[in-house]
Amino acid sequence: MPAWSPDGQKIAFVSHRDDGFGKIYNMNADGTGVNRLTTFTSLVSNNHPAWSTDGTKIAFASTRDGTAKIWVMNADGTNPTRLTSTAADEITPSWTR
Length: 97
What we know:
The protein is mostly beta strands. The protein has one domain. Helices cover 0% and strands 37% of the residues. It contains no helices and 8 strands. The chain has strands spanning 3-4, 10-15, 23-28, 35-36, 46-51, 57-62, 69-74, 81-82. β3 and β4 form a beta hairpin. The chain is globular. The relative contact order is 0.20.
C-alpha cells in the first residue's frame, strides 16, 4: 500500500515490522529516512495511507476504535483525528481537490 506524496519526495507505506499489525511509515523517495507515523501498538491495524493534495496530511484506515474508521493526521504523524463513526468498516480513503 505505498502512496507517493504529491511532490514525489516521500512515500507513505504500511509495514507489519513491529508487532505483526499494520503501521504507517514514510520515507524519502530514495529509501532513506524511514519514520513510523502511527503510534498505537498491539492489535491495531493502520492501512491505506492517502496523501492530501497539498502534501500536509495523510488519511488512513485504522482499527484503533474496534472497527476500521477513516482517520487523518499531519504528514509527520502528529494530530491523528478520526473522521468517520458509523458502525460499518470504512477503508481506503482518498482525497479530492
